[in-house]
Amino acid sequence: MTHLAMGKLRDATLALGQVERLAAPARRLRARGALAIVALLDGDVRAAGHLCDADREDGWLASPWGEGTRLASAWLLLERGDAAGARERLDTMTATGGARELWPFAAAVQAVAFLLSGAAPDALGMLRSWMARTRSTPPSHFQSIQLLTARAKVLIALRQARKALALFEGPFGLSAATAPAIALSQLYAGRAHEAYVMSVKWGIHQDVSPRAALESMVVSMVADVRLNGTAAHRSTAQRAEALSARHDLWSPWSAVAPEDRGLVLRLLSPAARDRVSERASFFASSVSVPHLTKREQVVLAQLTPTSTIADIARALVVSPNTVKTQLQSLYRKLEVSDRASAIRAAHAWGLIESDTDL
């Protein structure tokens, strides 16, 4: 489990495989559940499906020992296009007990399930809820990358791609694990050429997993059609198709926005075109975030449940009437009538961040 938390998926597979062969039934189930999660992180949906199917009738499945298998089963539903079913199962997962080592993966998967079921504005609040419930078990660096990637997709869906791009700085800068999410953020921030260059490089990188490679290839295809239209190259599409078919991995195609889908589908074979057409887009439910002026943003940053108008005015060195005017405008744009609702709405839109945000 330490290897898994660190993102050393090959080492985790070897160690968990030994446990699976030698352990008692309950521990064997836990090992197989973790193996299924490793397979899903890597992008081998077919292998994860075999592992979960083998344990469907296991008597330990409903116990804490089966938490990993239950998470993997919910994730499989998402991979197969059933976002609503995945959300229903993930809602039953707790942040304690057997799930305490796996909660970052559960939270990341649940955020994507929110996106694919049309609930993008609720996804950031859901991620914050996971963070608040699991303060005693902070995520590892690798797990933080999974959470950041999910959060970036949510921000892109909320039309805040530039803010998504800003997530990947410092210790979360460019690496094999972050490259697909960075390229995706660049693409939707209007930097198609940079996204294309980065995604092409990492799509053929020898050290990336099948999932990361396919995610990069999909971004490069979308960037290519945005830059070149019908003259886009088909070679990347052929490699991406082959990778999807080999691992039964089709979820990365959800990164194709509705406005790009027509041109991307033209690059695919008829069989792949049918599979990709069935996928919902992460960004189909994109909504317009309320646009705030710089003054409104400054006032919002000072807004707390206990701060008074006079407190904010003193902090900003302006008159109370100026603060009052900006607050009234802020409430109108956020469609709220009081301070507490404004703070909640601003968090939901990603306009302000709390200390627990990643």
UniProtKB/TrEMBL annotation:
It comes from the Bacteria. One of its GO terms (molecular function) is DNA binding. Keywords: DNA-binding, Transcription, Transcription regulation. Residues 285-350 form the HTH luxR-type domain. Pfam families: GerE. PROSITE patterns: HTH_LUXR_2 (PS50043). InterPro entries: Sig_transdc_resp-reg_C-effctor, Tscrpt_reg_LuxR_C, WH-like_DNA-bd_sf. GO terms for biological process: regulation of DNA-templated transcription. This is HTH luxR-type domain-containing protein. It comes from Microbacterium enclense.
